[in-house]
Design goal:
Blueprint (H helix, E strand, L loop, with lengths): L5 H5 L1 H8 L6 H4 L19 H7 L4 E6 L5 H11 L3 E6 L4 H14 L5 E5 L3 H6 L20 H7 E2 L2 E2 L2 E4 L3 E6 H6 L8 H14 L12 H10 L5 E4 L2 E4 L4 H15 L11 H9 L4 E5 L3 H7 L7 E4 L17 E5 L6 H13 L1 H9 L6 H4 L2 H4 L11 H10 L11 H6 L7 H4 L4 H18 L3 E4 L1
Parallel strand pairs: 1-2, 1-3, 9-13
Antiparallel strand pairs: 3-12, 4-5, 6-12, 7-10, 7-11, 8-9
Helix pairs in contact: 2-6, 4-15, 5-16, 11-12
Amino acid sequence: MRTTFLPERTLRAAAAAAAGLVLVTVLAACGSSGTTAGSGSSPAAGTSAAAVAAALQKPATLTFWAWAPQSAAIVAAFEKKYPKVKVNLVNAGTGTVEYTKLQNAIKAGSAPDVAQLEYFALPQFVLSGDLVDLSSFGLDSIRGNLSPAVWDSVNVSGKLVGLPQDTGPMVLFYNKAVYDKYKLPVPTTWAQFAADAKKLHAANPKAYITNDTGDPSFTTSMIWDAGGHPYTTSGKDVTINTNDAGTAKFAAMWNPLIHAGLLAPDSSWTSPWYQGLANGDIASLVIGSWMPVDLESGVAAGKGDWRVAMMPQYSAGQAVTSEEGGSSDAVLESSKNELAAVGFTEFMDSGPGAQISADSGDFPAENSILDSSSFLGTAPAYFGGQKINAVLSQAAKDVLPGWSWLPFQVYANSIFPDSAGQAYTKNVSFLSGLQAWDKASAAYGTQQGFSVTSG
């Protein structure tokens, strides 16, 4: 299970009540160094790799907050190589649960040295000055080994505030047995996707092309895929514009599927969803490239039936996609062992740990892994022997660069069901729902002290 992504969805409803706590005092902290808990150990720009290497040969204890299942193996490998540095691995929760705890720990002076943070959560902690700029240690040299979109995810406000652990370029996973049974062409355009949705549901009213009950992660990824740029931030100046062209394009394509009842009414990661994937009632998924291991572990009955294809396009012949999910590892400014923390993070995400993550089923961020013959040549029996990574690797190269998140995206995502989600439960157009989300997010940002312009 790709816990990098799943818990944020699974726990969203439970976490929504706590979400309002996440951004408390963020703006109050602006202008402070974020080191009030801490170390006074932040080195000057240009600290050498030798200094980091030397720190790893000295006794130190680090605390690492993470949820990814491979974290224990990475810690073990790191401690074997650097036995003087001990890493206390703590699962502090996921999604809003973790981010609320982290915000409170920073205030209390008890923050971890390193924390796993999803890309959409990074801007919030950057704004309050809580994350180390890793370019000070020369780690911006990784840029050449990343796609522009992945670099954009960790290079926030001109600072390298985390190293990418995994990514999720979006693709189409489809059940070939179902597509063959109903003579559905694998869609290369969204128009074809919509036609398949109608044909499938007409032939079998229990079957759907995919599911969607309203998910902010999916929605923002689809807006991104359509070329949208609804969020821009410069310091405390924020623009939220869900009237932009990309948002309108996605909403116009998706709205008829919602209101014609052509999307399975099963929330992702629930028992009915898994059952629908297993029995063929949900024929495909538009989702991140981390999905293979989840299909194999959660939908065993589908072995041999599933395949992967590139995302449908708005215009035939295009080749663009976006990201869904993905996480980074960031060093906290308050760390008392900052050099060792930087060394551990480098080991984890651009050293041996990156291969451990890839081998565990996480979708790798580094081009050196994505382009390797061992990665590209993988042909899982679950996917009928298809060399799926050749498709997934290409998708990673096709992600549109330039996307950015709100500095209060965690909260914005939590209120999605009560605004944009109304399109799924009431006779409200999807675009109107997105505009309501826009207004509610803008109102919150204003309350928190941002200067918000709403589209």
